[in-house]
Write a structure and sequence with these properties.
Number of helices: 8
Distance between the termini: 15 Å
Strand content: 15-25%
Order of helices and strands: EHEHEHEHHEHEHEEEHE
Radius of gyration: 17 Å
Shape: globular
Largest sheet: 8 strands, parallel
């Protein structure tokens, strides 16, 4: 039994630091690195890529809306061709930083509002997939299963990897409870670890109405800006390893 553990890294900007990148890199197996549009900047991107390469952590491009002010968590109306160009730009920038560190971008994951929009908006999902395919058709897209992103990946000839969120509440239809709703972020450590174990060992999650939804992810996400993210990721890793699960990048 094997699963990947990913987290969002490099989300500071300038003198502002967000999250504990170096500590998380000791625990996770894949790093979703901000590419400068919703967060991050060139020095941060280079620093995180170098640290990830040193630790054998897979580097993923976390592409987002051009929205530093809103941290990429505000949905933005954008022409599909412009969105594809923005995704391509971010991919190229992060891959340059990764290659300078002796690595490479290994997968792509949308961030925040773009992620949520592309779950059901096939036009935005296709724009993301087309940019990834133009850059490197071997790069997997990491997103919710049974979504427009999965359909767009298959249509573009890209690998698709299903992920699940240990620290987010799920609706009965398999979508994430919007962050504007109470309880959208699960912050109780016991609940987060229990949900991670349910995903990895039993392929299921309990939704907001108490129903059980089957989910079979290849990667689990813990948000880097969730309070206590390092502790949560560490407890998830310990629990899964103790249960006989191998933690490794899905790209290896």
């Amino acid at each position: 039994m094997r699963i990947d553990l990913n987290a969002d890294l490099g989300e500071g900007f300038g003198v502002w630091r967000l999250g504990e990148d170096e500590s998380l890199l000791e625990v996770i197996t894949s790093a979703n690195v901000a590419c400068g549009f919703h967060a991050g900047d060139p020095p941060t991107m280079r620093r995180v890529c170098a640290a990830a390469v040193d630790r054998g952590v897979a580097i993923g491009a976390q592409v987002g809306y051009r929205d530093l002010y809103g941290f990429g968590r505000r949905d933005i109306g954008i022409d599909p061709a412009d969105l594809a160009a923005d995704v391509l730009y971010q991919l190229g920038a992060l891959d340059a930083c990764a290659q300078a560190a002796g690595g490479a971008v290994r997968y792509v994951k949308p961030h925040g509002a773009l992620y949520n929009a592309a779950v059901d908006d096939r036009t935005k999902a296709d724009a993301i997939a087309s940019a990834v395919a133009a850059f490197d058709r071997s790069l997997p897209l990491l997103a919710l299963p049974a979504s427009a992103m999965e359909d767009a990946a298959h249509a573009a000839g890209l690998p698709f990897v299903a992920e699940a969120f240990a620290d987010r509440a799920y609706l009965p239809n398999g979508r994430l409870l919007p962050r504007s709703e109470p309880g959208a972020v699960v912050d109780d450590p016991y609940d987060v670890v229990a949900r991670a174990a349910a995903f990895a060992l039993h392929h299921r999650v309990t939704t907001t109405d108490g129903s059980v939804l089957p989910v079979e992810p290849r990667s689990l996400c813990v948000h880097g800006d969730t309070p206590g993210a390092v502790y949560l990721a560490g407890e998830i890793r310990r629990t899964l390893v103790d249960a006989g699960v191998t933690l490794a990048p899905f790209t290896s």
